[in-house]
Amino acid sequence: MTIHTVATAPIAGQKPGTSGLRKKTPVFMGRHYLENFVQSIFDVVGADGKTFVLGGDGRYFNDRAAQVILRMAAANGAARVIVGQGAILSTPAASHLIRLNKTDGGIIMSASHNPGGPEEDFGVKFNMPNGGPAPEAVTEAMFQRTTTLTEYRILDAQDVDLSVVGRVHLGGMVVDVVDPVADYAALMETLFDFPAIRAMFAGGFRMRMDSMCAVTGPYAVEILENRLGAAKGTVTHATPLPDFGGMHPDPNPTWAHELMAEMMGPDAPDFGAASDGDGDRNMVVGRGAYVSPSDSLAVLAANAHLAPGYARGLAGVARSMPTSAAADRVADALGIGKYETPTGWKFFGNLLDAGRATLCGEESFGTGSDHVREKDGLWAILLWLNILAVRKESVAAILRQHWARFGRNYYSRHDFEAIETAKADAMMTALREALPSLPGQVVEGMTIAAADDFAYTDPVDGSVSLKQGVRVMFTDSSRFVLRLSGTGTEGATLRVYLERYAAGPEGLDLDPQEALAPVIRAAHGLARITAFTGRVTPDVVT
Ligand code: G1P
Ligand code: ZN
């Protein structure tokens, strides 16, 4: 087998965002496109003699990309690649394998919750030896490398058979094809009380898991149905498909509407859940009771000690800045650390590595803990199941008790998608310029207490991240936050995060959009969303 050195030229725009390099699939399939980026990864992290993990969420081009990456790893001198059977690995399972095998990192092929298919999205992301997404300094170095690259190395070889578990050789490199589920399922068994959950299912507890034709299907069937005894067929859309069966595998009430309809319907099971394309996101729903991700984090933090893996309590809870402050109230009550980080899971890495935070969460349907360095959809679902098995109460009752004790942070996120980038930028610039004049102003009957552009200093390594979102805070602890998405592939996506606190015991049962109406009006008024973007109503409300 010969190693080819292929002459190439820098390709514009290979700039990884919040979650790696994400582009339309035809772009990724373009001449030298994948190869250029992968060579840049290897040039930055070094491949010689190293061991990597490789897998993806099974979307269109996942299989072909895996073969290219394997041949390039071999040509760049890697010693060994651990790859999921069929080139499949959920993102949290990949994170676990990176850590378990003490590897030098891993390459994950996914565009997360974005649709997959020949005309949809594809992505490649590098995770570090700690199992977490590469920090900005590393992705920036990769981007810089893409701008100067003149050649890449690839082995001239046949495809590796990834359909069979076992060891094969590719040039001088070892390829270990592993069962994508086994090690992950074993980790879950160490964290949760499987016998208690099994007893709950045996007692008639019913659940619906919607895997949305994406990667969690095999994981959920093995863990929920085979190991925990949930009824056969509990997991729907359980077969990962290259185009996710045309579904938009984003577990929120808009895209997981089948699950929502069932959970709000007359024959709803006790518990419902969904996960996204690559298995790191989760949505949980009780019978007739939707759980917002911010509330989910708070409830999990308040009850985690009921699961064996967290019986000793939590070191701290971290949330992204736009996530509601519900978890903070739990942290205060427990007397544990609380952290507010910029959007993106990578900001939790240092806190987890340093043992400062045990649980982390984002309003964008991401929850996780220090068991891996990614958010983890099935983990969150299993922690909920463990809590339900111990407390023997409904999701709705647990939520109600939580609000009665801590108060309720009404919360919603409004997304305005595919805005012309220039218009969105102009709106954010104008809002940023207005910030100093805002404190003291009265809007919609609420007084502005403070307004800023969120800046974060990492408490562990001291690194500073500026301009992470504009926040306007009112004296009654209501607030709104505006930021532009870092993961979109079309124009700009404006995210407006809205929050209002009710201490209770009155006013805990309002509809969130009604409870938030003044905050919504204030956000539109101050940011002049319609004047700048022409948009009146959001495309997605979560
Ligand atoms: C979105 C979410 C963010 C999450 C990221 C990756 O990023 O808002 O919380 O970490 O996807 O899953 P955004 O598009 O807002 O930059
Ligand atoms: Zn995801």
Write up what this structure looks like.
It contains 18 helices and 27 strands. Strand 8 and strand 9 (173-178) form a beta hairpin. It starts with a strand and ends with a strand. Helix 7 (194-202) crosses helix 13 and helix 10 runs parallel beside helix 11 (326-334). Helices cover 33% and strands 25% of the residues. A seven-stranded mixed sheet has the order 2-6-5-3-4-9-8, sandwiched between helices. Strands 20-21-24-25-26-19-27 form a seven-stranded antiparallel sheet. A five-stranded mixed sheet has the order 11-10-12-13-14, sandwiched between helices. With 542 residues, the protein is of the alpha/beta class. The chain has three domains: 2-179, 3-Layer(aba) Sandwich (Alpha-D-Glucose-1,6-Bisphosphate, Chain A, domain 3), CATH 3.40.120; 184-406, 3-Layer(aba) Sandwich (Alpha-D-Glucose-1,6-Bisphosphate, Chain A, domain 3); 408-541, TATA-Binding Protein, CATH 3.30.310.50. The protein is globular, with a radius of gyration of 23 Å. It binds 1-O-phosphono-alpha-D-glucopyranose and zinc ion (ZN). Residues 91, 112-113, 276-278, 280-281 line the site of zinc ion.
